[in-house]
Design a protein that fits this description.
With 127 residues, the chain is mainly α. It has 7 helices and 3 strands. A 3-stranded antiparallel sheet has the order 1-3-2. Helix 3 packs across helix 5. The radius of gyration is 17 Å and the shape is elongated. The N and C termini lie far apart (43 Å).
Length: 127
């Protein structure tokens, strides 16, 4: 285990309370940035951003890979790679049902990312 991994504080991305103040209020500590960066990186790809949008806005809160794949001009394995990246970044959960996999957005981590990027009205007034 590297020194950097050992020194990372626990940032609970599943917590309902924000992990840290918005960017506009205070600098994000390096350790927190290291924990949050994989989620932002995963969303930095246009296909993954669209997949995340489709999953998060799906009826009943989940989307079958069988419904996601036809929406793109990409192969099934490529879509699976993008979905695995979203899953490994902690943005979605996956559940296999028979031959299909269903994906659900993880609202807590999305709230964490949104809170970090929010601009508070009091902060905006100071600018």
């Amino acid at each position: 285990m590297s020194k950097q991994q050992a020194s990372l504080p626990v940032v609970d991305l599943n917590a309902d309370a924000p992990c840290c103040p918005p960017l506009a209020q205070r600098r994000v500590p390096a350790e927190t940035a290291a924990v949050l960066a994989p989620a932002f990186k995963a969303l930095g790809d246009p296909v993954r951003l669209q997949l995340m949008s489709m999953i998060a806005s799906a009826e009943d809160g989940e989307a079958c890979v069988c419904d996601l794949t036809p929406a793109f001009d990409l192969t099934g394995p490529t879509i699976s790679h993008h979905l695995r990246t979203l899953r490994e970044a902690g943005l979605v959960d996956a559940e296999r049902r028979g031959t299909w996999v269903y994906y659900r957005a993880r609202p807590q981590i999305l709230r964490q990312l949104a809170a970090l990027l929010s601009i508070e009205p009091a902060t905006a007034a100071k600018v």
